[in-house]
Design goal:
Blueprint lengths: L2 E4 L23 H17 L3 E4 L16 E6 L3 E6 L5 H4 L2 H9 L4 E2 L11 H4 E3 L6 E5 L5 H12 L5 E5 L12 E3 L4 E4 L6 H10 L2 E4 L2 H5 L6 E3 L2 E4 L4 H9 L3 E4 L3 H4 L10 E3 L1
Parallel strand pairs: 1-2, 4-5, 7-8, 10-11, 13-14
Antiparallel strand pairs: 1-15, 3-4, 6-7, 9-10, 12-13
The structure holds arginine.
The site of arginine has 15 residues, from loops.
Amino acid sequence: MPKVLLCPPNYFDVVDQKNPYMSRESAVDRVKARTQWENLCSVLQQSGCEVETIDPVEDLEDMVFAANQVFVGEKIGYGRFVVPSRMVYASRQREVPYFANWCRARDYRVIDLDFGDDYLEGHGDLLWHPDGSRIYGGYGFRSTRGGIEKFAAAMSEMGIPVVPLQLVDPYCYHLDTCLCPLNNEAALVFPGAYSSEALASLHKFWKRVHLLTADEAHRFMGNGIVVNGSYITPCVTPPLEAILHQEGLNPVIVETTEFEKAGGSCFCMKTFLP
Ligand code: ARG
């Protein structure tokens, strides 16, 4: 049974502008946010996931985006490990120890990297190929090229290659908004989010690259969760539905409008645990 880690939205709010979706004028409806978050949890459970939670912390308004604080993995011969992030924004940096300690208490090996002036934002910018054969690393807005390189050096000790991908669209400031692996051969990709070199390397690693439009990507349709034949997404268009059908996936809609005000949707709100 796949396990996912989420953080309840008790203190979720939009208090500053960390990305172009955020604006002080868009007040968060906490009651609605709670309902949407609980609905995401039940859909994950109905899709066959075991949901685990970490306690939310006051004043950490973005902690609900549980994809960013640590990168999680498992490698035969090395076991389960986490790499704590170095987040760009101060309030988000304070989230990291809570997640690292949560994992440490569950016997994950914690790989602390010395990032210096570089940044690395967990599964916002680092995505596994589904078979675990490599990791895609987005940089340019949050994670830095140097952060990806330092991470890649650590992964190379376990024999896991990291593919750096430069991001160029501020509305796709994290890789998980413009790349969504559907299975070992197919991924959703919004091409406008990448440098030409990055786009070329994506085509090398995926047999079927299904293109999203800017509108689809900016409405977080590439930020879905793939689990047990479902694609959990905030919305779907007819072309996306056709792609999902071709890949044997069934769209399941989960409204995330309150969280989109902070620049995140389904994928951003959880981390899969090995
Ligand atoms: N407000 C959060 C931030 O800007 C949103 C994070 C979204 N997470 C993600 N994995 N894309 O840091």
